Amino acid sequence: MAHATKRRVGQSEVTVLGEKMEKVKSSTVSLTFSLALSIVGLALINVLVLLPSLNSFQLNFQQSIVGILFIVVCFLGISAALYPTKCRRTFEKTQNPLPQTNKACKSLQIKGHHPDCQNYSGNRIKVGRRVFCASCSGLIVGAVVALIGTVAYFFVGFNFVWSSVWFLAFGEIGVIFGLGQIRFAGYFKVLANAVFVVGSFVILAAVDAMRKSLLVDLYVLCLVLFLLWFRISLSEWNNRRTCGKCKLCFH
Fold first, then answer.
1. Among candidates 219, 182, 188, 215, which has minimal Cα distance to 203?
2. CB 123 within 8 A of CB 94
3. CA nearest 168: which of 210, 196, 217?
4. Which DSSP category does 206 fall into?
5. Angle at the Cα of 123 (from 183 to 39), degrees rounded to 5?
6. Using N-to-C axis directions, what is the helix angle for 62-82 and 134-150, rounded to 10°?
7. Which residues are CB-contacts of 237 (< 8 A; sequence separation ≥ 6)?
């Protein structure tokens, strides 16, 4: 009877683990498609900016409207970084997909939004005695810088933005660099995430300075939201893949 029970538990673990790996594969296909959309979306910005036949649509207080919308996006990002309840629930599901027998894994805690596991050491930074999430720290730093830039450009009228495709390209490179943050660790991950947010602001400001079109600005804002969602999904996929490769908690 004990042998039969052990066998059923083992088969259940294999089945659930197999389902988990199938989800990872499905997520990989979805993220590949999202990556293609991100690249096309960024390339389309250049077309919209350089297309001479595109009519500009402007409203009174256009810059204020665009600035307020981007500020809302920044504050939403800061709130998600400071109170990552969804992130915590995701890790709990990732952390415990099967009944665990490894006592060390049962005692793991969430520190810096990540399991206190060696595999996630690169996702955390330590400041004094406190542990912080490297990605969220970078997003907050980038959001603060972007907020300062937004107020200065869209409301104060401090025209420090170059009306140049090179300035736009700088922002796009920053966003792409930020999307690759899963390849970095520690303070380099902080930098990548900060550059991702600042790059998003640079793109919006450069497009506004060059095109002066509300419709194009709104397109950029929608693209920024999509890129932010994609960056979060990419991180969650990488976390699931990390646990899937390790499997230590199931031994």
1. 219
2. no
3. 210
4. H
5. 35
6. 160
7. 24, 27, 28, 31
Classify residue 61 by its DSSP letter. T
| Contact in structure between 23 and 240 (CB atoms under 8 Å) | yes
The one-character DSSP state at 56 is P
Phi, psi of 184, rounded to the nearest 5 degrees: -110, 170
CA distance 67 to 74: 11
**Element (DSSP H or E) covering residue 186:** none
Amino acid at 150: T
Kindly calculate the radius of gyration of the chain based on its CA atoms and give it in whole angstroms.
22
Instruction: Identify whether the C-beta of residue 227 lies closer than 8 Å to the C-beta of residue 200.
Output: yes
Report how far apart, in Å, the C-alpha atoms of 83 and of each of 76, 79, 128, 160, 197 are. Answer: 10, 6, 21, 33, 18
The whole-angstrom separation of Cα 23 and Cα 237 is 10
123-166 pLDDT, tens digit per residue, is: 788 887 888 888 889 999 999 999 999 999 999 887 766 667 88
pLDDT digits (tens, 9 = 90+) for 75-116: 888 887 777 655 445 444 443 333 444 555 555 666 656 677
- Token code pair at residue 243: 């646990």
Dist. CA 99–CA 93, nearest whole Å: 12
How many residues make up the chain in this entry? 251
What angle, rounded to 10 degrees, do the helices at 187-211 and 62-82 form?
170
Indicate the pTM of the whole model.
0.78
Q: Where are the domains of the chain?
A: 2-250
Q: Which of 123, 235, 138, 132 is nearest to 194 (CA)?
A: 138
